[in-house]
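Read as amino acids, tokens; as here:

___
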Amino acid sequence: MSNKNFGFGTQIRKSPYFDSTVKWGATGFSVYNHMYIPRDFGSPEQNFWNLIEKSILCDVAVERQVEITGPDAYKFTQLLTPRDLSKLSIGQCKYVLIVNNDGGILNDPVLLRLAENHFWLSLADSDVLLWAQGVAINSGLDVKISEPDVSPLQLQGPTSKEIMVKLFGEDIRDLKYYWLREYKLDGIPLIVSRTGWSSELGYEIYLRDGSKGNELYEKIMEAGKEHGIQPGHTSSIRRIEGGMLSYHADADIHTNPFELGFDRLVNLDTDIEFIGKEALKKIKQEGIKRKQVGLIIDCDPLSGPNTTFWPIEKNGKKIGKVTSAVYSPRLKKNIALAMIDINYSELGNQLKVQTLEGKYSATIVEKPFYDPKKKIASS
């Protein structure tokens, strides 16, 4: 396939794995963190089955890292998030929220602690590098904020552990969920973590030398051949089943952590200092006005994920919007995440959703829709 079909320019960056993803059949790209991300390797449904039955390799170099170093790196990193980091060990990762002074969510990255004063924020789709550099100027703290030459791949799915053993040896088996290790693979410098955006067993492989991208991609595909590996992309079906957020869709700068049920990521009753603390205290005290819920939409299988926010009504009154919706071939249901008026948010409530095809009934259900205790990913 020729690249000229894509109309690529220089103002949007290509990933170090770009040539390999095209070679392995990427047929569509979108833009995320000012980079091209392969979003299409054929049928999204087949990609989903590949993920949950064997393994897929996803180019997620778009998850850019914000690197925080310097004598005050720990203190500064804590300033950025309401989650208490006092028990974050070296070699450990945590899912965190970055909030602004009003308590609005700016990003929901995975935080990696590589050393005493060395942190990476592995970003969702927003410019936290600029935010962190701006905060640093006025913080009075001695820190350096930069974007390192680091580009992650995700190897996700039930056979991913065996592929990792083949690449890195037996000791990778005891890498715990949400922990990281440093590796060299034939001289290629890497950080490997037991994390991923799939709700399946999986790993993220952070390449620390962009010139080795295609070489690394090919090595993993070769090692995974006997374990059924396929090139793929992050699965909307699986992440919605798992109730995982997509920033800009399910959350944005106008969303606060409590609306998403993320109380566990906000530590208000300790003496840690972080941006937005007073605002979040006030929001908690006054109570939220809307809430994220799970929905089952009662109509024929959706042809793909929603590309606009679908209005939700109760008795003819607009009470919210569907933020992410997709048909799950495993559950044989149309599942959705929605943000609605808290007065209508109880389980079992019947609502109406206006899709592009028509208006349909929907029922509020528990989320995540599948494996609610995250046993698969943490096993």
User: Anything to note?
Assistant: The chain has a mean pLDDT of 96. Residues 83 and 331 are 33 Å apart (CA to CA). The longest helix spans residues 128-139.
